[in-house]
Amino acid sequence: MRRLPPLTGLRAFEAAARHLSFKRAAHELHVTPTAISHQVRHLEEAISVSLFERRTRQVVLTAEGQVLLPVLRDGFDSFARVIDGLSRRQRRAAVTLSATPAFTAKWLVPRIAAFRKARPDIDLTLLASLEVVGLGSGAADLALRYGPGPYPDLVAEPLTVDRFAPVASPRLGVKKTSDLRSATLLHFDWYRRDPRNPTWRRWLKIAGIDGIDARAGLRFSDETHAIQATVAGAGIALHSLLLVSDELAQGTLVVPFGPELEGFSLHLVRDRSRPLTEPIEAVQAWLRAQFTAASK
Question: What is the pLDDT of residue 194?
Answer without folding.
Answer: 79
